[in-house]
Amino acid sequence: MVLVLLLVPEGSAVPHPPTRPRSALVVFESMFGNTGHLTRAVAAGLRGQGVDTLTLDVAIAAPPERVTADLLVLGAPTHSGSLSDITTRADAVRQGASSDRMIGGLREWLVHAHPDTAVHPGGVPVAAFDCRAHRLDPHRDAVDGAAPSALAMAGLQGFVPHAEPEVFYVRDLLGPLAPGEMERAAAWGRRLARALVGV
Ligand SMILES: Cc1cc2nc3c(=O)[nH]c(=O)nc-3n(C[C@H](O)[C@H](O)[C@H](O)COP(=O)(O)O)c2cc1C
């Protein structure tokens, strides 16, 4: 048997490994562009705190491989009180969204997404936000919506909740975003980043 000894001079501290920058993957769906705008603001908030951040649009993304990032962030519009499906996306297309966006949504992406437990034995943390319309969501504290649904699905896939679901508003079905929502999204991204690095 070969014994490997780690030689540390008596009295000296064991050196800490250098802290590496944290990484985040923000995966989003957007039929009319509003969740896309919010995603850019969330990503800017994360990057502003030094988190190496990639964004991925499910309409053009390849099927997911194992997620190796330190944080997964999910963003989607609320459709009929939940994540969209092919029927609600077809409805959005009838209302002017591009037909390229109809086939795959965040729900379908999540079915194939798993955390890379070889890189993160404790699991990959996940956070989620959704975009919804003021006039269709009069009960602001309702538990339903795309973000709670996305978090529940992600939990079943082995991701670990990192934050409460967050909600942003459009003024009407097609948009635009309600005033101040881009700033609120950037601030949420900063908060996620700070919780990730533990400061
Ligand atoms: C088929 C359909 C169903 C919707 N259902 C809801 C709903 O239940 N609650 C709500 O607040 N907004 C609802 N909306 C409004 C969407 O949330 C809104 O279009 C979306 O937030 C805009 O974001 P996007 O531009 O990223 O698609 C619905 C929209 C569509 C097209």
Can you offer a commentary on this structure?
This protein is of the alpha/beta class. The protein has one domain (23-197): Rossmann fold. It is built from five helices and six strands. It has helices spanning 34-48, 86-94, 106-111, 146-156, 181-197, and strands at 23-28, 52-57, 71-77, 125-133, 160-161, 166-170. Strands 1, 2, 3, 4, 5 and 6 form a six-stranded parallel sheet that branches. β4, α4 and β5 form a beta-alpha-beta unit. α1 (34-48) packs across α5. The radius of gyration is 19 Å and the shape is globular. It starts with 22 loop residues before the first strand and ends with a helix. Flavin mononucleotide (FMN) binds at residues 30-35, 77-81, 88, 91-92, 95, 131-133, 136-137, 170, 173, 175.
Question: In a few lines, what is going on in this structure?
Answer:
The chain has 199 residues and is α/β, with parallel strands linked by helices. The chain has five helices and six strands. 29% of the residues lie in helices and 18% in strands.
Present the secondary structure layout:
Elements: E1 23-28, H1 34-48, E2 52-57, E3 71-77, H2 86-94, H3 106-111, E4 125-133, H4 146-156, E5 160-161, E6 166-170, H5 181-197
Parallel strand pairs: 1-2, 1-3, 3-4, 4-5, 4-6
Helix pairs in contact: 1-5
Q: Which blocks of ≥5 consecutive residues have pLDDT under 50?
A: 1-12
Distance between the termini: 44 Å
User: Which fold name corresponds to the CATH topology?
Assistant: Rossmann fold
The CATH level-2 architecture is identified as 3-Layer(aba) Sandwich
Q: Outline, from the CA principal axes?
A: globular
Number of domains: 1
Instruction: Name the CATH superfamily assignment.
Output: Flavodoxin domain
Helical residue percent band: 25-40%
Q: Specify the biggest β-sheet.
A: 6 strands, parallel
Order of helices and strands: EHEEHHEHEEH
**Beta-strand proportion:** 15-25%
**What is the structural class?**
alpha/beta
The rounded Rg comes to 19 Å
State the total count of DSSP E strands. Answer: 6
Task: Count every helix, treating DSSP H or I runs of 4 or more residues as helices.
Answer: 5
Instruction: Name the average pLDDT.
Output: 89
- CATH C-level class: Alpha Beta
Chemical compounds bound to the protein: flavin mononucleotide
